Amino acid sequence: xxxxxxxxxxxxxxxxxxxxxxxxxxxxxxxxxxxxxxxxxxxxxxxxxxxxxxxxxxxxxxxxxxxxxxxxxxxxxxxxxxxxxxxxxxxxxxxxxxxxxxxxxxx
Length: 107
Hints:
Blueprint: H1 3-14, H2 17-28, E1 32-33, H3 34-41, H4 45-57, E2 61-67, E3 73-79, H5 88-94
Antiparallel strand pairs: 1-3, 2-3
Helix pairs in contact: 1-4, 3-4
């Protein structure tokens, strides 16, 4: 994956208030399971899973199967440490690796 692709993937993943909230929640806790996060966010589990998938694809969160406090198997997510520097220099360095037409794909 090119530098530009990685940068765009992360920026797209973080360009949503629910996903920013998820990152903040996982920053406060070591790991949380899907149902717990969905209840706290006030959204459905399928919608939360869609947001988690976008964050996971961008390398921002990671999921693993574990046991919830009720003894049932649950999908836990944790934050993957990351740091993304955004500056004119970073953008200029990544821009040459953008595939033709990708900069105007409407995102």
